[in-house]
Amino acid sequence: MTLISFVVPAFKVQGYLRECLDSILDQPFGDIEVIGVDDASPDDSGEILAEYALRDPRVRPVRLAENAGLGPARNIGLDRAVGEYVWFVDGDDWLVPGCLPHVADRLRDTAPDVLLVDHVRAHWNNIGTRSAMRDVFPVPPGATTFALRDRPETLKLLHTAWNRVVRREFLLEHGLRFEPGWYEDVSFSYPALMAAGRIGVLDRICLNYRQRRTGAITKTRGDRHFEVFAQWHRVFGLMDRWQVTGLRPAVFERMIWHYLTVLGNGARIAPELRAPFFAQMHADYVRFLPPEGYPVPPGPEGLKHRLVAAGRWRTFSALREAHQAGETARRTARRARRQVTPVVRRTARRARDLAFGEYYRAESHRPIDPTLAVYAAYWYRGYSCNPAAIYEAARRLAPQVRGVWIVRRDRVATLPPGVEYVVAGTREYHRVLARARWLVNNVNFPDFVRKRPGSVHVQTHHGTPVKVMGLDQQRYPVGATGMDFAGLLRRVDRWDYSITSNSFSTQMWERAYPADYTTLEVGYPRNDRLALATAEDRGQVRAALGIAPDEYVMLYAPTHREHLPGWRPPFDPDRMLDVLGPRGRLLMRSHYFHDRERHPRGPASDGVLDVSAYDRVEDLYLAADVLVTDYSSAMFDYAVLDRPIVVYAPDWDAYRVARGVYFDLPAEPPGAVARDFPGLLDVFRSGAVDDEAAGRARTAFRARFCALDDGHAAERVVRRVFLGETP
C-alpha cells in the first residue's frame, strides 16, 4: 500500500502550483501518490496538473466540471486516495526539502491516527514566522502518541488541514469530511483531534504556509466570513453527538479566539458588517458557554472576551479605534524621525530634482490628456522591444492616440524618423509622465511616478523567464544584491495590464509580481515581425549587415549574470569560426546591461561582427541561421522562426544555485545542449546542431512557449488597452 496520498486542490494557483508539486515529488522518499484536483480553475492550474501527470505516474489529476470549493475538492481527492495516510496540501504552499523521510519514519514507528507537523508562515517579503508549536509543546512529545483529553493544549495549534497527516481508514470510520464554504478546516480539524485515539507530534518544520500578498481568502472582504459561524456550530454539534466530555471549555475558548481573530482583521470584515458580526459572536458565546465556564485569557485578550460576553459592541469598537489611533501616531512619529534630511544634502542637483518633483506634482493635478500614450523601453535606452511593436500597431489601429517616447539624450539619434519623443529628466519628460492616459514600458517607470485615477499602466516585460525574477529573487540573495523589494512592489501595484507571451510566463509573473493587475496572455508584440517575416525581409537584413546569401550565420547572445559582474562565458570566436567553415559568419551580441562597454557597430572583421549596439535584435534573429545562447530569453523569441538553437551552459550548476531558475533548461531545451566549449564545437562538428533529436526538442519547446506568437499580438494589445474591445 502507498504510505501517503497527497491531495492537492488547485484553484487560481497557477503561479505557485509547480513549486508545490516539485516540493512533493522531489522528496527523497517515493512511496507516495499525488491527487491533484483541478477545481474548475479558470487559469492554467489544470494544465499544469496534466503536464506533471504525463511525466510522473505518481501524479493523478482530477478535473471538476464546476467549481466545488476547497472543502468538496479535498473530499473528491480523499475519495480517490489509496494511501495509508492522507496529507492535504494546498496548491500555493510547499514542503520543506527532505522532510518526508522523517514524516514517514514517524508514521511507521508510532502508527498515529493524526500526526501534527510544524510549519512556518512564508511571507511574500521572504520573512518566515514560526508557528505556535514551541509555545504549545515547550518540551516536544517525541515519538509518543496521546489522546486529546490528555493534552488539550494541542487545540492551540493552527486548525488547518495541511499541518497534519491523517490515517485514511480513521477518516472513513468516523465519516470525517470537509464541509462546503469558507473556514472549512474548522469543522474537520477539531473533530479529527477529538476522535483520534493516537495523536502524534513531529517537532520538525515540514511545510511553508504561503502568506500571499493578493488572492488569499484572509485578505478578501465580504460577508462570506460569516460562514465561520456555521463551521463552529458543526464542531459543537459533533461534540454533542459523540458525547465528548471534558473538552468543551478548551474548544469554546478556541472558538472565541477564532471569532476575534476574524473580526480583528480589517481586511476581512468591512466596517458596516462589524457590528452584525460582533452580535453573532455574542449569540454564540451565550449559546455554547460551558456550564462550568472556561479559562478566560489574561490581559487585553481577556478584556475582549468579557466584552463579547456582555455584548458591549460600542465599548469594544471604541477601544479598538483608540488602539489603532495610537499605532498610527507612533508610525507617523517614526517616519518623521527618518525623514529628517541634513542640510548638507541640499545640493544643486537636489534642488533641481525638487523643482522637477514639484512641477510633476503640479502637472498631476491637471486633467489627464485623453489622447496621450507614453512609451519607454530598457530604462530609456531607445525605441525597441514590445513597446515599439505596440506603438506601431497603435499608430495603425488607433491613430487618435498620440504616442510619445522617452529616451536618454545619448539615444535620441537612434529613434526612427517621425517618432515624437522627450528626453529623460527634462521638464517635458515630467509633464508627459504626469499627464499621460497610457504608460507603456517593458520595465518599471521611476518611483516618483504615481498611479493617477484614469491612467492605464501597461507592463509588457521583455522576455520569457528562465532565471527567477521579482520576489522570487529574495531566495537567491547573491543575485539580488541591492534590490528594494518593497519598492518593487510599489511599482508593480501601478500595473493595470501585464503582457505575457505564454502560459508559463503568466504563471511565473503571477508568483514573482503578486498584485491586482490584469494579465493579457496574447503573445509578445515584438515577435510579430518574426512570425510574419518573409524571405525578402531576411535578405534585406542580411544585405544591410554585409552578409552574403550563402553565408552560414551563427548569432551568439549570452545573458547577463548579476551575481558575477564583468564575467564572460568561455568562448573563442576564432575556434568557433574554424568549425563553422569558410562560409561561416559569427555575430556576437552582449546583454544590454553592457551597452556602454561596447563600441558602435562597425564592419565585419575576419568573419566576426560585434552587434551589441545594434538597435533591433529582431533583425539579428532574421539574419541568423542558428542561435547559441545560455539562459537568455532570446531563445524563446528566436524559436518563433523554427531555426536551430543551441544552449551553451558552461556554468549551469553554479548559475541555478546562485541566480535561481524556473525550469531545468538542459532537461527541456529548445535544441542541442553543450556544457563546455569543446562540447559546443562538437555540436556543430557532429551535426547535432540540427539533427532529429534537436528538431524534436525544438518542436516541443515551440509548442510550449511560442503558440501565441502568430503575428497579431500587438494588435490584440491595442484593441484591448487602447480601444477597449473585449477579446
TrEMBL record:
Keywords: Cell membrane, Membrane, Teichoic acid biosynthesis, Transferase. It comes from the Bacteria. Residues 5-168 form the Glycosyltransferase 2-like domain. It is a peripheral membrane protein. PANTHER family: TEICHOIC ACID GLYCEROL-PHOSPHATE PRIMASE (PTHR37316), TEICHOIC ACID GLYCEROL-PHOSPHATE TRANSFERASE (PTHR37316:SF3). Belongs to the CDP-glycerol glycerophosphotransferase family. This is CDP-glycerol:poly(Glycerophosphate) glycerophosphotransferase. It comes from Micromonospora marina.
